[in-house]
Specification:
Strand order of the largest sheet of chain B: 1-2-5-4
Radius of gyration of chain B: 21 Å
Structural class of chain A: alpha+beta
Number of strands of chain B: 18
Shape of chain B: globular
Largest sheet of chain B: 4 strands, mixed
Order of helices and strands of chain B: EHEHEEEEEHEHEEEEHEEEHHEHEE
Subcellular location (chain B): Nucleus, Nucleolus
CATH topology of the domain at 192-293 in chain B: Dihydrodipicolinate Reductase, domain 2
Protein name (chain B): RNA 3'-terminal phosphate cyclase-like protein
Number of helices of chain A: 31
Keywords (chain B): Nucleus, Ribosome biogenesis
Strand content of chain B: 25-35%
CATH superfamily of the domain at 192-293 in chain B: RNA 3'-terminal phosphate cyclase, insert domain
Radius of gyration of chain A: 50 Å
Largest interface: A-B, 89 and 105 residues
Strand content of chain A: 15-25%
Strand order of the largest sheet of chain A: 6-5-4-1-3-2-13
Shape of chain A: extended
Helix content of chain A: 25-40%
Number of helices of chain B: 8
Distance between the termini of chain B: 36 Å
Oligomer: heterodimer
Main location (chain B): nucleus
Structural class of chain B: alpha+beta
Domain RNA 3'-terminal phosphate cyclase insert (chain B): 187-291
């Protein structure tokens, strides 16, 4: 420990530095104080060290990461026009040297020897953001530096916080828009610090300084790529406990006939992607965010389309190993399916395909998109949805023989043969084909059929396999050349001969056209059309038929087998269109439909295959009697063994093959766990008794555990020694024989191991903590997990542990809504989120919720809210409540402003501790922050305990002393009876109790109070009324909306919105309305003071009764004087004289004033001078006096000794 | 049946009343609804028996929000499980089956409740058909402890003993809640170091116990000296309503595995009476049989062990069992139905010179990562 080493050193240095004190007292004092300080410091250090140490600890988790982990999901998010696609393109180019156009769907690349990356672009739709935040391992958060942060960034960060925080790396773009270097630096710093507060201090923020030819600078991208490829990821709880697939490819397997009959029928879809998270079990439940809950009908694992390079000791990947896989973006490379292999032949990077496949011969053909698809097994594979962006690339889909089938040598020979033939096909034919296509732009579509009523014999199967492969080869050849050669036509014609009566019948109906059912390999030739957008096929075909003289109906190789015979007919070309035409085609079509409906339940082609596989599997294991066969029956997980009991539900799926009769008996026998004893063993016999001797401690022990052997081993361990004195070598055993040598070697190794173990145990014992033990235990478990099924092949392994993460799986789901396929948009991610055992159920959830501090409104109880919880997004109606001190959940009308509150919803069962977020709307983008609330699941239940306060009000109508009769609170006697003994209260606070009901008026009762009531009192009873939660669970089905409308999902509206939209206004309570306030003038009565009091008051306080002075009465008023003119003149003169006099007087006074002032000044001056003089004189005098004093002092000083 | 329109959970359907408890228990744990049809539909007395109805009632008591529908004749049962609630539960078990019948199911459910379970079960504590409470106490509880179900108040107490057919016994089972199961590696049972047992007798002479002990020791002493069999004679109010006696033997190994055997006297008025000496001897032989079968878990608890393995973390669990009982085999099938978990079953044949009983079966599985969703977090 470093903690205790430092303080010791410190103490010594302190002591040595101090001068050695002389007195013992001082020294001991000092030491004592020093010791106290040191102890305190030491304690502090120890705690701190321990603190730091333990802070580094995380709860150890079992590392369940498989050896070959799935690609890392890198989600690139940011507001629009910030450079997301450009960044992905640059990164892809950086890793794979390939350019990608439009980024549609996930793009998987091999970035290094140990790592693959899947890039997903996240658009601005909040649904997408939520879904991708749940599956992201790394988030590249693009920020437009020239603009600053945008709301999306913060929204995404908050979504991440709720659903487990994946690694987040910020990337600043548009840095070239800054002209000023200083502002650039400042912006960078500001953005960085804001980003840090959101993510964590020191979170990585990358700067992409600018664009060069529409791309980011190579060096910067390279650096970013390097960061990505060495990054470590934290395991997130939700992700590690649930399997999930980020779908990178999907195909519609629905029977096209069914689709034709009802275009809105439910679809069977297979979805492909890397499995991540936990193990996925077949038949398990899963949720597709934006679509809904489904059950997996089948899961298979496929060869990795983007495999890691083989472990070789080299530093970099070569060009071939830099794989890129993005089927939705139209880059697939080689795609292996269960039934077929799809090959993509892009013009730019066809290196690897060329290796595995015949090189493209004709340059002209490159210009056209040729798309072939051969369906080997699936009857309903016609409709195919692979996103094909309008690229100029040529894409081809060619079929190889299926993976599982063993292609016999002969067929492979034929394959090569046919290839060569195809290569040699004359170019004129190609032109012909193109002619056909150009004139019709047509698609040859034919419903495919499969039919198998019975199980096939093994030999038949093999034949089939061969034939199939042959056929495939033929088809493949046909496709390769793009049309059919004459020879092939002949061949097919030859084969036609083999048809039985059925086929002849067909021939009658459809002219020379022969159809057979059981298995059809169908070839589509699509010129520029994406398959899904194709019109009903027969029209276009017939059109083609009519227009062309010689047409090629390419690829329709039809074959049939049933219980008795196996027929196969290939027809690759037909001549003489005039004979067929539309009518002929209809006939064919009818026939096809007839067959289709004749064997509705029998189209179990795939099942049959699985059965075959299962049988093969069983045959392998038949050699040894197999207990698992006894337990789990002959079938494998997930499919029916006895198909005749198909109508039964799932329980019937897992039937054990045992005689019918015994089963009947067993179904209702006694349910008892006792294992009846085996009567064959007679425990009186000695040999039987002997058979278990060793089970007891008294019996014989095993080699390694016997006390004697243990002792001996110890002896061995320490027995060998060399006596140094005598030079004699003591050996515990003499090893001589050759055969013993091996044993000895093993023993030595064993010994060494044990020694090492012992040493390790002793060595680590010092600071082995609980934490270390736990970690070790986890480590052991992880090793065991890895080792347990390692030696098994994947087929068997998936049965036991499920499909492990890292596998490329194909998940088949029945009955998906048709909109899912029809409105598929690769820009929106499809996620298959596996659900735990109870998570497919629904119930009440209790949550802890807090309104988001950036959301500008509070939330109202019973307003629908969209939750993102677990994998799901759904709308539900929450009720908010708060827990009172007594544990009561009291309903709240609104969420508190800055506080957590409880919320109860009706929703999917999700484990406690899962985070959620809530939104009011997912439609469109709004300026303000969209996340309304966040929180966590606390509890799951099937009932709720929320109550709301209910006050019942009554009025007394008769009052005795403490008893009153109350009416108006209840309506009937029965109601009162239920509340007998309940406590009541008046508004004024007098408490009381309900005693007994009174007969009249109904609902009135007698109550006692602690005091007498008044008639004006109001009595109330406070009660709690349980609230029910509305059972609304409305999944957000945003993925089902049409393209372009996916971000416009809107669910149930709130009452407020409804009122607003419909223009309804509540009639308000008139009492609540605002009216002009009319205040009556307050009048006060005159104050009356008793006379006695008045007398006693001092005068000041006495009321004054004097009237205010009124007007002077006329008689008292003086009369006005009216002067005579003479008098007026005299008065004017006198007035003038007076004015003059006044003036003169005023003038003289001013003059006098001035004079006096002058005089005063003069006097002051004189006075000053006088003072000055006097001061001088005084000064002189004092100086003289001082001098005299000095002299005197001097003389006295001098005189003193003289005197002495 | 439209249970929930847009949820993934789908139900299972079965025929007949056999393995009734398994189906309902697994349904409760997995959350999948179950429909059992044709319950004794061909029988003279069709439909559910009283003890099954009583079991359904017990299930209803420990859960919250379960939906149980039984048709008029009782030949069809639909069970939509709720959430396990737990708490204090009292149940008068039907006397047709002993408390063990109910307790076996309760042991499987108890760790996954919302609140710790305290179940008081009244009825027959010991009868010859089902595992008795003594056996479960001495084997199932230590087994569950191996899976991490432990803590304050994990106990099974026999308050009153009631023999078949009269009953009158009382058992208190308390179990703490548990969030997750620990994966186990029980691959080596170890050697048996001691044998313990309980010889109980009610409403008969107290000497019966001693006589049983004597005879049982006589057989077992050939193998081991460390044998102690308690005699448990309950009197008065604690002795139930019917007379009877019996013996439970448990062999404990060095590695903490328990193998057990038991035998009860035939219920009063049903069949021939047995002598205590015979019973003791036969019971001891049953124990030897159990030892012969071997494994880390005795035959009556196989299904419990397998269930707890299934419900463990997503890790590999291993357990060595004796030959699988028919009940266990069916249980394995049911586990596959409800949890999609298949066990890797490897038969270990005893070698020539080994004297360790018959074939063993090594069961390996990867847990489903089940966590107790009922427990409240605060």
């Amino acid at each position: 420990m470093t903690g205790d080493a430092t303080p010791k050193r410190l103490q010594f240095s302190l002591l040595s530095a101090w001068p050695r004190p002389s007195t013992g007292q001082f020294c001991s004092d000092l030491l004592r104080s020093l010791a106290a300080v040191w102890v305190a410091y030491w304690v502090h250090c120890v705690f701190r060290a321990q603190d730091i140490k333990t802070r580094k600890h995380h709860i150890p988790l079992v590392d369940r990461m498989p050896l070959e982990p799935p690609p890392v999901v890198i989600v690139v998010v940011g507001p629009p026009k910030v450079g997301k696609s450009t960044l992905i393109r640059c990164l892809i180019k950086n890793f794979t040297r390939q350019k990608l156009g439009d980024i549609c769907g996930p793009v998987t690349i091999v970035s290094g020897k140990k790592r693959r990356l899947t890039f997903v672009e996240c658009n601005n739709d909040i649904n997408t953001m939520i879904d991708l935040a749940k599956v992201a391992d790394l988030v590249l958060m693009l920020i437009d530096a020239s603009f600053g942060f945008e709301m999306e960034t913060f929204e995404f960060l908050n979504i991440c916080q709720v659903h487990g925080f994946p690694r987040v790396m910020g990337v600043l773009t548009h840095l070239d828009s800054f002209k000023n270097n200083k502002t650039l630096r400042k912006t960078k710093k500001n953005l960085k610090h804001r980003f840090w507060t959101e993510v964590y201090q020191g979170a990585k923020l990358f700067y992409l300084s600018g664009m060069l030819y529409g791309e980011y600078q190579t060096q910067e991208v390279k650096n970013l790529g390097r960061f990505i490829s060495v990054m470590k990821f934290r395991p997130l709880v939700w992700q590690t406990s649930h399997p999930y697939v980020l779908v990178d490819r999907l195909e519609d397997l629905t029977n096209p006939e069914k689709v034709r009959m009802d275009p809105r029928c439910d679809r069977t879809v297979s979805l492909y992607g890397y499995l991540r998270g936990a193990h996925l079990k077949n038949k398990s439940q899963l949720h597709i965010p934006g679509v809904g809950d489904f059950q997996v009908s089948d899961v298979n694992f496929l060869p990795d389309p983007c495999p890691l390079p083989d472990a070789q000791k080299k530093r970099a990947l070569n060009e071939k190993e830099r794989l890129l896989y993005a089927p939705m973006a139209g880059v697939g490379g080689l795609v292996y399916d269960k039934d077929a292999v799809y090959i993509d032949l892009p013009a730019s990077h066809s290196r690897q395909q060329q290796v595995s496949f015949r090189p493209v011969t004709s340059g002209a053909r490159l210009t056209r998109l040729l798309w072939f698809c051969v369906f080997l097994r699936e009857p309903g594979l016609q409709e195919e949805h692979i996103w094909d962006p309008n690229s100029q690339r040529e894409r081809r889909k060619v079929v190889f023989p299926g993976e599982e089938e063993n292609v016999s040598e002969s067929s492979s020979d034929e394959h090569t043969e046919s290839e060569t033939m195809a290569e040699g096909a004359p170019p004129s034919k190609i032109q012909k084909l193109e002619e056909v296509k150009s004139c019709g732009q047509s698609v040859a579509e034919l419903p495919a059929f499969a039919d198998s009523n019975d199980e096939l014999e093994k030999s038949e199967e093999e034949d089939e396999g061969e034939d199939e492969s042959e056929e495939e080869n033929e088809v493949g050849r046909a496709e390769d050349s793009g049309h059919c050669s004459e020879e092939e036509e002949e061949e097919s014609a030859d084969e036609e001969v083999n048809t039985d009566g059925e086929s002849e019948e067909d021939e009658e109906q459809g002219g020379s056209l022969v159809c057979f059912f059981m298995k059809i390999c169908l070839v589509y030739a699509i010129s520029d059309i994406i398959f899904s957008s194709v019109q009903p096929p027969y029209q276009t075909i017939s059109e083609t038929f009519c227009r062309t003289e010689e047409y090629i109906f390419c690829g329709g190789s039809l074959c049939i087998w049933n219980t008795t015979d196996f027929l196969r007919v290939c027809f690759l070309g037909l001549k003489g269109t005039s004979r067929l035409g539309l009518r002929g085609f209809h006939a064919l079509h009818q026939l096809v439909s007839a067959f289709w409906f004749a064997f509705p339940g029998a189209l179990r082609w795939k099942e049959d295959l699985q059965q075959k596989a299962a049988e093969a599997f069983l045959r392998q294991q038949e050699a040894a009697p197999n207990l698992s066969k006894v337990v789990y029956g002959s079938g494998r997980v997930g499919f029916t063994v006895d198909s005749d009991e198909e109508d039964e539900e799932l329980g019937g799926l897992f039937r054990v093959s045992r005689p019918h009769k015994s089963k009947r008996l067993q179904t209702n026998s006694v349910d008892c766990s006792r294992f009846p004893p085996d009567s064959s063993l007679n425990w009186n016999l000695e040999e039987i008794l002997d058979s278990i001797r060793d089970c007891f401690v008294t019996g014989k022990w095993e080699e390694g555990q016997d006390a004697a052997t243990l002792l001996k081993q110890d002896d061995e361990l320490y027995g060998d020694f060399e006596d140094m004195e005598t030079g004699e070598v003591h050996k515990s055993q003499t090893a001589g024989q050759q055969e013993e040598e091996e044993v000895q070697k093993n023993k030595r190794l064993e010994k060494k191991r044990r020694l090492k173990e012992r040493f390790n145990a002793e060595y680590d014992d010092g600071d082995a903590t609980y934490f270390d033990d736990l970690k070790e235990e986890m480590q052991k478990q992880a090793e065991l997990n890895r080792a347990e099924f390692e030696e098994m092949d994947d087929e068997t392994r998936v049965q036991y542990e499920g499909f492990r993460p890292g596998m490329y799986v194909r998940v088949e789901i029945l009955s998906l809504p048709c909109e899912f396929v029809a409105n598929f948009d690769p820009h929106y991610p499809i996620i298959l989120g596996g659900l735990g055992s109870s998570e497919g159920n629904i119930g009440y959830l209790q949550l802890r919720l807090k309104k988001h501090r950036w959301y500008d409104r509070i939330l109202k109880t019973r307003d629908p809210l969209i939750f993102s919880l677990g994998w799901r997004r759904f709308q539900t109606i929450p009720l908010y409540h708060i827990e009172d001190h007594n544990g009561r959940h009291r309903l709240l009308k609104y969420t508190p402003q800055h506080m957590h509150c409880g919320a109860s919803i009706w929703g999917p069962i999700t484990p406690q501790g899962s985070g959620f977020l809530a939104l009011q709307s997912v439609a469109g983008t709004k300026a303000h922050f969209r996340i309304a609330a966040t929180g966590v699941v606390l509890d799951l239940d099937k009932s709720v305990t929320i109550v709301k306060k209910l006050k019942l009000i009554g009025y007394p109508y008769k009052i005795f002393k403490n008893t009153s009769f109350i009416k108006g609170m209840f309506n009937t006697v029965l109601e009162v009876a239920k509340f007998e003994g309940a406590s009541i209260r008046t508004v004024s606070g007098i408490r009381g109790q309900i005693k007994k009901a009174l007969s009249t008026p109904p609902g009135s009762y007698r109550a006692t109070f602690e005091d007498r009531l008044l008639m004006s009192d109001i009595v109330f009873l406070r009660s709690w009324y349980p609230v029910t939660i509305p059972q609304l669970y409305n999944p957000v089905t945003s993925l089902l909306r049409s393209v372009g409308q996916k971000d416009n999902w809107s669910g149930m509206r709130t009452v407020g919105q409804l009122k607003h939209d419909l223009g309804i206004r509540n009639k308000p309570n008139t009492d609540s309305l605002y009216k002009p306030i009319a205040r009556a003038k307050r009048r006060f009565n005159p104050l009356h003071i008793p006379k006695e009091l008045q007398k006693a008051l001092p005068f000041k306080s006495k009321p004054k009764f004097q009237q205010p002075k009124g007007k002077m009465p006329r008689d008292l008023r003086r009369p006005c004087v009216i002067r005579e003119p003479q008098e007026k003149k005299v008065a004017a003169l006198l007035h003038a004289l007076g004015t003059v006099h006044h003036y003169k007087k005023k003038k003289t006074t001013t003059v006098q004033h001035a004079k006096h002032k002058e005089f005063l000044q003069q006097k002051e001056k004189q006075e000053e001078a006088k003072l000055k003089r006097q001061k001088e004189a005084k000064k002189k005098l004092y100086r003289l006096m001082g001098q005299m004093d000095k002299k005197k002092l001097k003389s006295s000083l001098k005189g003193a000794p003289k005197d002495d | 049946l439209c249970i929930n329109n847009n949820m993934a959970s789908n139900g299972l359907s079965y025929d007949g009343c056999n393995f009734f408890r398994q189906r309902l228990v697994l349904s409760t744990l997995s959350g999948k609804h179950v429909k059992i049809k044709n319950i004794r539909s061909k029988d003279d007395n069709p439909g559910l028996r009283d003890f099954e109805a009583s079991f359904v009632r017990l299930l209803d008591k420990v859960t919250n929000g379960s939906r149980i529908e039984i048709n008029q004749t009782g030949t069809m049962l639909f069970y939509q499980p709720g959430l396990l609630y737990g708490g204090s539960v009292e149940h008068d078990c039907n006397l047709q089956r002993s408390i063990g019948y109910y307790l076996e199911a309760l042991l499987m459910l108890a760790p996954f409740m919302k609140t710790p379970l305290k179940a008081t079960l009244r009825g027959v504590t010991n009868d010859p058909t089902d595992p008795t409470v003594d056996l479960l106490k001495s084997t199932a509880l230590p087994l569950m402890k191996r899976f991490g179900i432990d803590g304050e108040g994990f106990d099974l107490k026999v308050v009153k003993r009631g023999m078949a057919p009269g009953g009158g016994g009382e058992v208190v089972f308390t179990c703490p809640v548990c969030r997750t199961m620990r994966p186990v590696q029980l691959t080596d049972p170890g050697k048996i170091k001691r044998i313990r047992g309980v010889a109980y007798s009610v409403r008969v002479s107290p000497q019966m116990g001693n006589r049983i002990v004597e005879s049982a020791r006589g057989v077992l002493n050939q193998f081991l000296p460390d044998i102690y069999i308690y005699t448990d004679h309950m009197k008065g109010a604690n002795s139930g309503k019917s007379p009877g006696f019996g013996l439970t033997l448990v062999a404990e190994t060095l590695d903490g595995c328990f193998l057990s055997a038991e035998m009860s006297s035939t219920p009063q008025g049903q069949g021939d009476s047995v002598l205590p000496e015979d019973l003791g001897r036969n019971c001891a032989k049953l124990l030897l049989q159990e030892v012969y079968r071997g494994g880390c878990v005795d035959s009556s608890n196989q299904s419990l062990a397998l269930l707890l393995m299934t419900l463990g973390q997503q890790d590999v669990s291993k357990v060595l069992l004796g030959p699988l009982s028919p009940y266990t085999i069916e249980f394995l099938r049911h586990i596959r139905d409800f949890f999609q978990v298949m066990f890797k079953i490897k038969v270990q044949k005893p070698s020539e010179d080994e004297r360790k009983g018959g074939e063993k079966v090594l069961m390996t599985c990867v847990g489903v990562g089940y966590s107790n969703i009922n427990k409240t977090v605060k």
